[in-house]
Amino acid sequence: MMAARLRFCLHVIILFLCCTVSSSEITCRNEAGEPVDWFIIYKLPRYKIEEVGSGVDYMYLDSSVGTWQKSQFMVNTSQGAIGNTLNPLYTGKVYKSNSSVYAFYNDAPPVLDYIQGYGHTKGVLLFDRSQGFWLSHSIPHFPSFPERGYLYPSSGKVNGQTALCVTYQYDQLLRIAKQLVYIYPRFYNCSVPTVFLADLPQLAQLCEGSKPQLTSDKSVEQLFSTQGEKFVSFVKSEHFVDDIYTGWVAQVLDADLLVETWQRQGHELPSNCSLPKHTMNIKRIRLPGSVLFWSHYDHSKWCVSRAYEDQVTCLGDLNREKAQLWRGGGLVCSFNPVIYKAFRQVVDWYIGC
């Protein structure tokens, strides 16, 4: 009888410890606040074809749902996947701690004036010596400073936006930090505690506003999530003066790419078939539920392989426009069939060469 009680008590303690670890670990979190390996959101534009929406509704995707799901939450509330993931930074548990690193970067940060010279990139890093997440997104003026609480900018309502969150172990996040050196992000709020300086000297420099020296003008790095999902990070500095999609990524991946970026009239680069592998501009998107919109109302930056057998999807920083040939930026590419199917099926119309 006593042995049975001891076994029961031990079982309860183990369950408690597991739940405690699960709730406190630094990780991407889904719509319910549960840890996930990765997720993607597609924030819908306000101006759709024959419809004006709220500008704060979004589609959600992770490995468990398998296809785009319309979220019950709005992106301008602290509920939902992004709010749940960033919550530790806004509750004060993490950003006041010396046991974790965090960094907010955005070429168009909230509150502050725009400054030329930084990479065209937006994201958040948060991790400790065990693991953490990299949230890369396309939303200007986001996220808000930790002490201000979770705020979504009104400017982020008009256009479509995307965000990719991946949970990585510490060694992978060290690689990501080195990749960011090429892009030269504008860090507007960050902390690299003293105990991390030996591992992250370049990130500390970036946080201080310094620009570390580069040995080349671009870099490719394989990354693996905590669950072993493979991602490939392509980053370029301003010294690589070319369209990242046509001049580099399509050729390395050996795939023709359909590219969705913000297509402002008079600024966009045309579809390009001058190299062995081609890039073609997507002009119209159709998400589930007959959500139809033009690329000039979509501020997201992503691409998919035209051929289904290539199964390539990339999300990133740069638009296909002339001015951004001279900007630092990157792409995170996946070969996951769930991600590929979700993005490939929403291509409603693209311009061939």
Which H/E pattern describes the elements? HEEEEEEEHEEEEHEHEEHEEEEEEHE
Give the C-alpha Rg. Answer: 20 Å
Terminal CA distance reads 78 Å
Structural class comes to: alpha+beta
Mean pLDDT: 92
Give the tags.
21 strands; 9-stranded mixed beta sheet; 353 residues; 20% helix; 8-stranded antiparallel beta sheet; single chain; alpha+beta
How would you characterize this protein structure?
The chain is of the alpha+beta class and 353 residues long. The chain has one domain (38-351). The chain has 6 helices and 21 strands. It has helices at 2-24, 81-90, 170-183, 201-207, 245-253, 337-344, and strands at residues 28-29, 35-36, 38-43, 47-48, 51-52, 58-61, 69-70, 101-106, 122-127, 131-137, 161-169, 187-191, 218-224, 230-236, 257-260, 279-287, 291-294, 302-305, 313-316, 329-334, 347-350. The strands form 4 sheets. Strands 13, 14, 15, 16, 17, 18, 19, 20 and 21 form a 9-stranded mixed beta sheet that branches. A hairpin with a 2-residue loop joins strand 4 (47-48) and strand 5. It is globular. The termini are far apart. Mean pLDDT is 92; it is low at 1-22.
Task: List the topology elements.
Blueprint: H1 2-24, E1 28-29, E2 35-36, E3 38-43, E4 47-48, E5 51-52, E6 58-61, E7 69-70, H2 81-90, E8 101-106, E9 122-127, E10 131-137, E11 161-169, H3 170-183, E12 187-191, H4 201-207, E13 218-224, E14 230-236, H5 245-253, E15 257-260, E16 279-287, E17 291-294, E18 302-305, E19 313-316, E20 329-334, H6 337-344, E21 347-350
Parallel strand pairs: 15-16
Antiparallel strand pairs: 1-2, 3-6, 3-11, 4-5, 6-7, 8-9, 8-12, 9-10, 10-11, 13-14, 14-20, 15-18, 16-17, 16-21, 18-19, 19-20
InterPro entries: DNase_II (IPR004947)
GO molecular function, one term: deoxyribonuclease II activity
Catalytic activity: Endonucleolytic cleavage to nucleoside 3'-phosphates and 3'-phosphooligonucleotide end-products
